[in-house]
Amino acid sequence: MTRRVFVHIGAPKAGSTFVQNVLWDNHAALKRAGILLPATRTAQDQAMTDLREVSWRDPHATWTWDQLVGGAASWPGDVIITNEGLGGATAEQAARAIRSLQPAEVHVIVIGRDLWRTLPSMWQENVKSRSVGGFDAFLSAIERGKNDAFWNHTANRMLRRWGDLVPAERRHLITVPPPGSPHLTLWQRFAGVTGIPDGLCEIREQSANASLGAAEIELLRRLNRALGDRYPHRAPYRAGVLRHLVNPLLKQGRNELRFGIGQDRRQWILDLTDERIKELEEYPCQIVGDLAELRPADLTAAISPDEVTESQILDAAVEALIGMIGYADGLSQRAERGIMTRIRGRITRRLS
């Protein structure tokens, strides 16, 4: 029977991808050490969409939450389930998830990051997941207390919704270290919570999850709007638009215009941060790091994508088209090499 289960539920854009990359890169080594990541990264994502019963679940998805839990139940050591989408579960869905993992000792892990960096990153991730809403509208809704999709993924709400289901000593809030900190600090904090020994995991050089510039992300938002009913589900959208446009082209573009929150919202962010920290100081949980790290360390001004000119968007589109020519040529050359390799293989087999 499973001894302990660590459920890492987010937050999105708080270093989750980095932590998950280390975990899945070392899946075999962790398993040998008695720590299981059940199934695969894709399976855990599909299980999350099943648990949450989301409208955007890939119709071709096969993994369910019960399958994931069932596959881990007989493991005699520790289990780690990690998907930042879990943080958006309702109270009922979270309760179902925790019940399904018992009688194992269930721990809940939440990662918190400062809002000055989180809000632009989360909006960008929304756009990269097919959203068509503008940045200013996104911020305005949050200012009014709307946009539950955002609020439900904040550390405060996730701890209330998930953490309340387990004893205080099994609730863990890890804070993201400020810019300039050693890049392994976040991983070391996560490993300390989950009991992963120092040196067990090989950590390869992690490529930064590059942000798009203001013009590039606005171009993508407009593309999403123009797509209409095409690519309605997350999986085909990621396989098509992210794989062939965002990752190989837009991320490699100039991205000269840094986008972010304007100075007109500076005090709102600072006040909201103080409220969050005060609430977390009063909430019984295990804090790994320092709540002061939730305060913005760099309030540098940036441009909103809503302020980008038509000329700047056109320049970004032209750059993307130029990049597309080279990208398509590369795909064609690789396909031709693959065909020639197969032909030579067949000729060699016939002659031998």
Automatic annotation (TrEMBL):
Q: Which SUPFAM superfamilies match?
A: P-loop containing nucleoside triphosphate hydrolases
**InterPro entries, per the entry:** P-loop_NTPase
Q: What is this protein called?
A: Sulfotransferase family protein
**Provenance organism:** Actinoplanes awajinensis subsp. mycoplanecinus
Q: What are the top taxonomic ranks of the organism? A: Bacteria, Bacillati, Actinomycetota, Actinomycetes, Micromonosporales
